[in-house]
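Students often ask why inverse folding is considered easier than folding. One informal answer: many sequences map to the same fold, so there is more than one right answer. In these notes we will look at a single instance of the problem. The structure comes first.
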C-alpha cells in the first residue's frame, strides 16, 4: 500500500510540474517561416524574440478562457496535492480520499475544457508560418489530462490501510 501511495504521489507531482510547463511555455503550436521556427503559446508569439500573441477579436474570448482554465487546473491540482498530504496524516484507517479525488477530477475537467477549446479554435493557426503542427506543451496538456483522470479515480477508490 505504501508503494501505491508513493507512486500516486510521484505521478501527481509530475502532473503538477507538467501543467506548469504546458501553461507557461509558448510552444502549443509550431510552424516554419522564412525567418526560422515560429511558436505560439497561450501568452506569446515567439520567433527569435517573443511578442504579444496577435489574436482576432472573435478569438480573444476563447484564448482568455483557455488561459483561465489552465490556471484553474494548476490551482486545483496543487490543492488536491495538499489535500492528499493532509488526509494522509489525518484520516483513520479504512477511509477513502474522497475530497482529494473530487478536487483532482475538477482539475481533469478544467484541463479538458481548456485543451478542447484550444483544439477547436486554434489548431493549425500560427501567424506568419507554414506547416503548423502541435508543440510539446499541447501534448503535455493532453498527458496531464490522462494522468489527472487516472489519479482522481485512484484517489476515489483508494483506501488508507
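Output (designed amino acids):
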Amino acid at each position: 500500500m505504501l508503494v501505491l501511495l508513493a507512486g500516486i504521489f510521484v505521478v501527481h507531482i509530475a502532473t503538477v510540474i507538467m501543467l506548469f510547463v504546458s501553461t507557461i511555455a509558448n510552444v502549443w503550436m509550431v510552424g516554419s517561416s522564412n525567418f526560422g521556427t515560429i511558436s505560439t503559446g497561450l501568452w506569446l508569439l515567439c520567433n527569435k524574440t517573443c511578442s504579444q500573441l496577435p489574436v482576432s477579436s472573435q478569438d480573444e474570448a476563447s484564448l482568455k478562457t483557455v488561459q483561465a482554465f489552465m490556471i484553474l487546473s494548476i490551482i486545483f491540482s496543487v490543492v488536491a496535492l495538499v489535500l492528499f498530504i493532509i488526509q494522509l496524516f489525518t484520516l483513520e484507517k479504512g477511509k477513502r480520499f474522497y475530497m482529494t479525488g473530487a478536487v483532482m477530477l475538477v482539475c481533469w475537467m478544467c484541463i479538458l475544457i481548456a485543451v478542447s477549446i484550444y483544439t477547436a479554435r486554434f489548431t493549425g493557426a500560427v501567424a506568419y508560418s507554414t506547416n503548423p503542427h502541435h508543440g510539446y506543451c499541447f501534448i503535455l496538456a493532453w498527458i496531464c489530462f490522462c494522468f489527472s483522470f487516472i489519479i482522481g479515480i485512484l484517489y476515489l477508490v483508494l483506501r488508507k490501510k
